Amino acid sequence: MTDAGADWLDILLTFTRLGLISFGGANLAEIERVLVGQRHWITPGTLASGFALGQIMPGPNMLAMTHYGFAAGGWAGAAAATLGFYGPTALLSAAAALAWRRLLGWKWLPTIRSALLPFGGGVLLAGVLVLTRGSVQNVAGAVIAAAAFALLTRTRVNAALVVIGAAVLGALIGL
Amino acid sequence: MSAPAPPPAPPEDAPHPPPAPLPVTPTHADLLRVFAGVAMVGIGGGLPAHMRRAALGRAWMTELDFAESYTLAQLTPGPNAVNLAAMIGARLRGWTGALWAVVGVLTPGLIAMLAVTVVTLGLPGGLPAPLQSGLRGAACAALAVMLTAALPVLRVVGGLRGGWVLALATFAGIGLLRLDLLPVLAVVVGAGLILHRPRPEQPERP
């Protein structure tokens, strides 16, 4: 906890901005720039361990934001960060989905869908790249990722088991 | 049932059943329960894959519905998995459906994350080394989970005219060149709109 006294409203607004400028997942580079460099709410160590913790939590892996919010301002900070990061974007998403449904039958709809899908696919691939940079730091990590991918695509094993197995393996070999 | 009975006549005042766009419509409690369940099996990421399995398996959506929602969730800013939950919830049950889906997908993780946060941020010097190593291993597997979730979308993209070219251009612009997202969006989606513009002489695409 580098600064447990940060104002909750400040935290709310900062995390709202971080949520609204994240596309295709979280914009980790920007999160680091603002939270570590600009506001000094968290240390680089907290950023890394919070992100890794998010990976093994049930649910979205950017629950790390709750972790960062707690580091910045205790319980109120955790609540403000969670609400700010998830609330406005969820609202926007619901609005987009509802508008989309009302447009069914419009002749440009298949056109827009066909135009958006490749963009979505590309953003997704870019997110995989960012995640690769963030998590695969050596050959052992790459081997674990490749083995996990093979397991997930060729067997019906539960993904959570694969992740937990990889965690045990990582701890054993000192990844 | 060997004796065939005539089918019971509908009551005179029965309302016409509304045209159901989806075979099955979940209740709010279903959304809360299923999305909390998705969060719990989605430890380590891969939530979109689990949502797809949950929604398609219960006949809440079709594959195309899901691919559409998935793309929209990528386009709206913010965390994909929560956006996707909000979209699926909204599609199935409107605003309140979105609310319950989001609450469901966040609650298990929030409880777990807060519990771990209170402990670990209290530790002087951060997490012990073996735990750090374990988290790195988990992150590598989480990457693989995310990649498996991307495959269905990429399959749909592969079937579109110019789909691969535009997807790779997006990947290069955002992932490799680290360009601003909005100009890339404008160019790629603009090109896609021109490629797929409605043409009166063409039969409608399914």
Task: Spell out the blueprint of helices and strands.
The complex is a heterodimer of chains A (175) and B (206).
Chain A: H1 8-20, H2 28-38, H3 44-56, H4 64-102, H5 109-135, H6 139-154, H7 159-173
Helix pairs in contact in A: 1-4, 3-4, 6-7
Chain B: H1 28-41, H2 47-57, H3 63-75, H4 80-120, H5 129-158, H6 163-176, H7 181-195
Helix pairs in contact in B: 1-2, 1-4, 2-4, 2-5, 3-4, 6-7
Structural features, described:
The complex is a heterodimer of chains A (175) and B (206). With 175 residues, chain A is mainly α. Chain A is 77% helix and 0% strand. The two termini of chain A are 26 Å apart. Chain B has helices spanning 28-41, 47-57, 63-75, 80-120, 129-158, 163-176, 181-195. The radius of gyration of chain B is 22 Å and the shape is globular. In chain B, α1 crosses α4 and α2 crosses α4 (80-120). Mean pLDDT of chain B is 81; it is low at 1-6. Chain B folds into two domains: 28-151, no CATH class; 160-196. In chain B, 67% of the residues lie in helices and 0% in strands. The longest helix of chain B has 41 residues, at 80-120. Chain A: InterPro entries: CHR_Transporter, Chromate_transpt.
